[in-house]
Each structure stands twice: as C-alpha cells, then as structure tokens.
Design a protein that fits this description.
The protein is 32% helix and 23% strand. With 244 residues, it is α+β, with helices and mostly antiparallel strands.
Length: 244
Amino acid sequence: MYSWPPWDWATGLLEDPLLAPLFVWDAQHLYKYNGIKFEWFINEPWTADHWWKIQSSLPNNGVPFAIILYADKTHLSSSGNVKGYPVIACCANLPVNVRNGDCFGGGYVVGWLAIVPEDSDEDHKHSYVNLKHVVWHRLFLKLLESIILLSKTGFAHKCFDGILHWLYPLILILSADYEEQCVMALIRGPDSACPCPICLVPKDKLTDHAKSHPIQIPEDAQACVELFNQNHKAGESALKRLSL
C-alpha cells in the first residue's frame, strides 16, 4: 500500500494562512423561524448533535479535528500486477464549499489500499474471505497510525483567533459503498440475518422505517468471539444472528 500520514496532511492544512480563518472548532446549534416557532437545522457537521457530544467528552479547551474519509473502490489503479484504490481525506472543520472543492482545502488522497486478487477457486471459501478482511483492516490501521496516539493525547495548536486549542483528530465519517462497508464492519453481507453495517435491523424489516433497532457495538462482537473460542457451534450461531 501507499500512504501519506493523515496528520502530515492535517498539519499542512493548519499551517495554510488562506485556510486558517475558515476553520470552525466549536459545536453550534442553528435555528430559523418558520413563522410559528424556531426550528433547529443542520447545514454543517459542527451543527449536528454528534459533534456536540464529541466536544463535550473532550478535556477543557479540547476541540475535534474531524476527518472525513472516502474509500473509493470504483477508482481502481494498477502498478504492474498490483491493484489499489484511493482513500481520500477531507477536513470536516472547513466549510462544505471548501472541503468539497478542487482547490486549497479540498479532498486529498492519503492512501492507496491494495486489493487481494480475485481467485475463482478460492473466492467463496471462508478462509479466503477472512484473508481479504484481515488485509483491509491491517492496511487501514497502518493508514491511521499517525493519528491514533494524538486522538488520545491531543495536539496543541494556536489558531487564527490567537487561542491555543488542543486538537483531537478523529474519523467523523467513513464513507464507502455497501460492499466496502461490509468489510469495514465485518458483517456477512446482503444475504445475512442483519445486513445493515450500522444496526441490527432484520433483513425482512429493512423497509419498515417506523421502528428503530439496536446499534452494532464492539462489545457484542467480542462476546460472540469469546463464546466461539469456548464452543465453536454455539459461537458460530451467535455470530450468525449478528451477521458477523
């Protein structure tokens, strides 16, 4: 794989004098009057509840440096007999017209993830599917190495307003197509009991939007793996119920 450490990309943005006044660090709630009452509306990541919750969990004077990653498998590239696809980073602290633009502050390729070759004799074997997943997760972990420690300790940065903030890098959004999301979440895919990579909605309830369902959480997966290590049959059954 090829990677440019995401924090090197991030510091390049922070040091750009043209971008410095455009960064937004603090959570905001915006309201507009509809003729009857004021309604809360969301037009940027920092105006949503998730940003507010993240910032509330950080130490005093700590703010999120929020990263959006796009894993775009539709744009394959090859070098010799090796294929890869780009991972593109955007900074969610910048306004949408800047981060989605094609100039300063826009998306930047921070890595190329290798693809395990398709093998007609091995493709549908359990071990080969696991190999593909292991390769993806190890490469992605390598890509994130530069921000893992900083996400816990923070990084002191004097911002354009002259205030010293502690920036905590995090992945706010990980965007990909469904096939890639299945690999990210380690679920079994569209024919499984719960095909959603986010929640545990049963396959036959996907079109029922009136109900909510529990979120997929690591603790449930870890409990199933522990059960599998003790009793393979019971563990496999528990994993299948969660589409893992």
